[in-house]
Amino acid sequence: MTTNAYQHILVEPDPPIATVRLNRPKVLNALSPELIAELVDALQALDRDDTVHAIVLTGNERAFAAGADIGAMADSTVVEQIRRDQFATWDKVRKIKKPLIAAVSGWALGGGNETAMMCDMIVASETARFGQPEINIGIMPGAGGTQRIAQALGKARAMEIVLTGRPITADEALQMGLVNRVAPVETYLEEARRLAREIASKPPVAVAMAKQSVNAVFDDYLDRGLMTERRNFYMLFATDDQKEGMHAFLEKRKPTWTGR
Ligand code: CO8
């Protein structure tokens, strides 16, 4: 069953699990503020739904999500970024008590990779590509990328991924410990749902407590690190290189950096 209460996502309840599908295929599921608001609303509703015990978050075969919507933020200013404070909405995903499993095929870039990493586990298709390409458009990760990659993969790998913007393959992500498993593109979603059903068969209160306890390892450092990352992300909207990088992407040309 699919519920169509939303414009940019699809919610497919199949108790005891549910699948939430990012659904802006024409722009590779670019994460507009409206999509994020819908996603948070749907996850919170599923978190309250006693028939659902685990949630799978997915996109389509070509893209999980190619990042934040560059068109929606190209002309944004620092003041707008601070006033909009879009990450306050994203942060609410951290409060979801039920297990979240990302099923990733194709591109998981920028905010897309950050959304996958906000989940508790990741099942990837062989075609999945994970990366933080923000540096190529004059900015940096803002929704936890610098923090969660450094934590999951270590400093050296985090620096390379964040500073070169080059994506890694599903197999590399598996070797590095970013994803739980890799499956053929035909079966990755079913594989993620199988994992969700396995966890959904366990005692729900114990599952929620166990999830909270594992996350407690990261919570304190994340609270501090996310604030630094967020401030630096917002500040970059005062630079010429941010405007140049994003407009160059939208105009399909190479950017010219001025260091201003
Ligand atoms: N935003 C807006 N539109 C996008 C995005 C995006 N992130 N990604 C792709 N699209 C659009 C393209 O413009 C294109 O539109 P059109 O058909 O109208 O020209 C369509 O999707 C298909 O894309 P491509 O033609 O580029 O497809 P390719 O297969 O040639 O390339 C890529 C696929 C490599 C994924 C390429 O599209 C790409 O590099 N995309 C941008 C990736 C990127 O830089 N992501 C980071 C964005 S910044 C970010 O995520 C910051 C996170 C902070 C959180 C912010 C909170 C909202």
Protein described:
- The protein has a domain at about 10-185: 2-enoyl-CoA Hydratase, Chain A, domain 1.
- It has 11 helices and 10 strands.
- The chain has helices spanning about 35-50, 70-75, 80-85, 85-90, 110-120, 145-155, 155-165, 170-175, 190-200, 205-235, 240-250, and strands spanning about 10-15, 15-20, 55-60, 65, 100-105, 105-110, 120-125, 130, 170, 180-185.
- It has a 6-stranded mixed beta sheet, sandwiched between helices. Strands 4-6-8-9 form a 4-stranded mixed beta sheet.
- Helix 6 (about 145-155) packs antiparallel against helix 7 (about 155-165) and helix 6 packs across helix 10 (about 205-235).
- The longest helix is centred in the C-terminal third of the chain and has 32 residues, at about 205-235.
- About 40% of the residues are buried.
What is the fold's blueprint, element by element?
Blueprint: E1 9-14, E2 17-22, H1 33-48, E3 54-58, E4 63-65, H2 70-73, H3 78-84, H4 86-91, E5 100-104, E6 107-109, H5 111-118, E7 121-125, E8 129-131, H6 145-153, H7 155-164, E9 168-169, H8 170-176, E10 181-183, H9 188-200, H10 204-235, H11 240-250
Parallel strand pairs: 2-3, 3-5, 4-6, 5-7, 6-8, 7-10
Antiparallel strand pairs: 1-2, 8-9
The structure holds octanoyl-coenzyme A (CO8).
Write out the strand line-up for the largest beta sheet, numbering strands in chain order: 1-2-3-5-7-10
Number of helices: 11
Q: Which ligands occur here?
A: octanoyl-coenzyme A
Kindly estimate the percentage of residues that lie in beta strands according to DSSP: 15-25%
CATH topology of the domain at 9-187: 2-enoyl-CoA Hydratase, Chain A, domain 1
Order of H and E elements = EEHEEHHHEEHEEHHEHEHHH
Give the % helix: 40-55%
CATH class group of the domain at 9-187: Alpha Beta
Outline type: globular
For the sheet with most strands, the description reads: 6 strands, mixed
**Alpha-beta content class:** alpha/beta
Write the CATH architecture name of the domain at 9-187: Alpha-Beta Complex
Spans of at least 5 consecutive residues whose pLDDT stays below 50 are: none
Whole-angstrom Rg: 18 Å
CATH homologous superfamily heading of the domain at 9-187:
2-enoyl-CoA Hydratase, Chain A, domain 1
Mean pLDDT: 96
